[in-house]
Design a protein that fits this description.
The protein is of the alpha/beta class. It is built from 21 helices and 12 strands. The strands form 3 sheets. The chain has a 5-stranded parallel sheet, with helices on both faces. Strands 8-9-10-11-12 form a 5-stranded mixed sheet, with helices on both faces. It starts with 8 loop residues before the first helix and ends in an 8-residue tail after the last strand. 36% of the residues are buried.
């Protein structure tokens, strides 16, 4: 049965183009676990699916092949296979024979879900699939093959950048991202859950716009109730999610968890060298590979510094749920509920960092609010270590415009209007002066405040603030 698809406008355009194409298609979809890849494919292509097979987490080659046989029997009952294939080459021969019996007109979609799990050790799955594509599917303009996986790094290395039979064979690739704030609000409203923008923002700061997580929210309960029963009840949907998340995506996942835990302790992020010095982490090329996999999978963001010195690049934890779990759920031995936790200083500190992450994921909305959607912009961070001569300074978000102008963005989460007092105004001026020393003299600087409820009017705001962006602008469609 088809279900309504919320958002995903750009992705749906791609899916529709491939459906209308008169050429054979090979679509690779990847994105983190629970983001809705399977839901999108199965619902948008519901009327065109002719075969679906999914990998089983931790399953042996024998198990994967037995599952493949069962799916062949489900989709092609008239061609019932009595014995599982002995290997993937034989499996694809069986599928080819079954597809030859399909006489319907129009595009026929075959869908291989969780491809990394199908590719068990020394199974030969990728080479066999590449041969199947080159010998058969590439000559069938009426067939669209969709391959999907949550292990984004595996999908890119083994499929998108494949050097063997699948080299340059991908017709289209889609990295499915979590919902934006607008899509999150639309999804909740579709389910008749009408939270305020402030409440949706708080929920987003925990779930990161992951549809599966949002699905746990029930109509008729408050935000605090929703967070409690989802995260702080033993059988809550997300109670064991962190323990399951990384093993499902990465081999030797302990290394990835070590990095995530180290980054969770530092709001500003850590350089690669700082990560190496932080404790029991992999070294050398091992750390490089782990960081690449975490970055490609959307858990970590690599922020290039303004001075473009790569050794100073910062890695930040941007997966909202992982940060929330490590700050509040892990070690909650006192069994505090969310209402109690949300009144602590630890909560306020988390809000500030989580809101920064949300803003960095909504740069197009920030550009629109600033009226610079048509201007090329790169975003980065800036940091100056303290010394005997000068105090340290840090700017979490810089928008470096192609028209020789830079926005210094101050991001402040507050339960009411943010007030710039005398002391804070002095710190801002010192920060701006320190940053100006590091840029060419011809660059223009503008100070932008991004807040929940705006900046209160006073003499310091009048003196310093050039642009003001409120929470509701982050919900805009772009």
């Amino acid at each position: 049965m088809k279900h309504t698809i919320i958002g995903r406008t750009a992705e749906i355009k791609i899916l529709e183009q491939l459906l209308r194409s008169d050429q054979p298609g090979l679509l690779a979809i990847y994105g983190r676990r629970r983001v809705g890849k399977t839901y999108l494919v199965k619902n948008y292509y519901a009327d065109h699916l002719k075969f679906v097979c999914s990998g089983e987490s931790g399953g042996s080659l024998r198990t994967q092949l037995a599952n493949f046989q069962q799916q062949l029997n489900t989709w092609f009952p008239a061609n019932r296979q009595l014995q599982p294939p002995a290997n993937w080459q034989q499996a694809f021969i069986m599928l080819r024979e079954c597809l030859e019996t399909v006489k319907t007109k129009g595009k026929k979609v075959i869908f291989f879900d969780e491809l990394p799990w199908l590719d068990t050790h020394k199974s030969g799955f990728v080479s066999a699939f590449g041969y199947f594509w080159n010998i058969y599917l590439s000559d069938r303009p009426d067939i669209l093959a969709v391959i999907c996986g949550s292990a984004a790094s595996w999908m890119i290395k083994k499929i998108v950048n494949n050097k063997g039979g699948l080299h340059n064979r991908i017709t289209q690739r889609v990295r499915l991202m979590p919902f934006t704030l607008k899509e999150t609000k639309d999804y909740l409203q579709y389910r008749n859950i009408r939270f305020s923008d402030y409440q949706v923002l708080q929920l987003y700061m925990i779930t990161g716009g992951i549809p599966h997580y949002l699905n746990a929210v029930k109509r008729g309960e408050s935000l605090h109730q929703a967070i409690d029963h989802t995260c702080f009840v033993p059988n809550g949907l997300l109670a064991d999610e962190f323990q399951n998340l990384y093993p499902a995506l990465f081999n030797n996942y302990e290394k990835h968890v070590h990095v995530i835990q180290a980054l969770a302790k530092k709001n500003k992020g850590l350089t690669r060298n700082e990560l190496l010095a932080s404790g029991d982490l992999v070294t050398g090329g091992g750390l490089t590979a782990v960081l690449e996999e975490l970055t490609e999978s959307g858990f970590v963001e690599k922020t290039e510094p303004f001075n473009k010195k790569k050794k100073e690049s910062l890695y930040r934890l941007v997966d909202e749920f992982s940060l929330f779990y490590l700050r509040f759920m892990r070690g909650n031995s006192s069994k505090n509920d969310w209402l109690t936790i949300s009144k602590t200083g630890k909560y306020l500190s988390w809000c500030g960092y989580a809101f920064e992450n949300v803003c960095m994921k909504h740069i197009p909305q920030i550009k629109k609010a600033l009226g610079i959607s048509g201007i090329s912009v790169s975003y980065c961070s800036w940091y100056r270590a303290g010394s005997k001569q000068a105090a340290g300074a840090q700017i979490d978000l810089l928008l470096d415009r192609s028209d020789n102008t830079i926005h210094i963005c101050e991001i402040k989460f507050s339960i009411k209007q943010f007030v710039i007092d005398k002391r804070y105004s002095q710190l801002l001026q010192q920060k701006i002066a320190a940053f100006r020393e590091s840029i060419p003299p011809g660059k223009g600087l503008l100070l932008a405040f991004i807040t929940t409820y705006g900046v209160a009017d006073n003499e310091y705001k009048l003196q310093l603030v050039d642009n003001e962006i409120r929470m509701e602008s982050l919900f805009d469609q772009v």
